[in-house]
Amino acid sequence: MGEVTFASESRKSGIRAIWEKNGGILIAAACLVLIALAWELEKQEMQAGAVIFFILAYVVGGYRKAWEGMETLIKEKDLDVDLLMVVAAVGATIKQRLP
Fold first, then answer.
1. Per-residue pLDDT tens for 10-25?
2. Please, which contacts does 61-66 make with residues 24 or more away whose CB atoms are closer than 8 Å?
């Protein structure tokens, strides 16, 4: 008997393969778009919208590495560069926005 493959399962595995191969590029592209939108809103003096898009860019760009860093911290009890870079980026943002 042959194995039956459903279209949804095949599509899921195809999407997963694309994500595993190009996930970093897709995340970088999403961050670039979010930062461009935030920059444009800032130029038009729409500060609240700009801040929202900048925060979204931080979350989208940093989530994956922050998660990996937290896993390393919890499982291996070790700080790695991923977590340290996310903490540094958050700290730089807070310092930049404070008066």
1. 666 788 888 888 888 9
2. 61/27, 61/28, 61/30, 61/31, 62/86, 62/89, 62/90, 64/23, 64/27
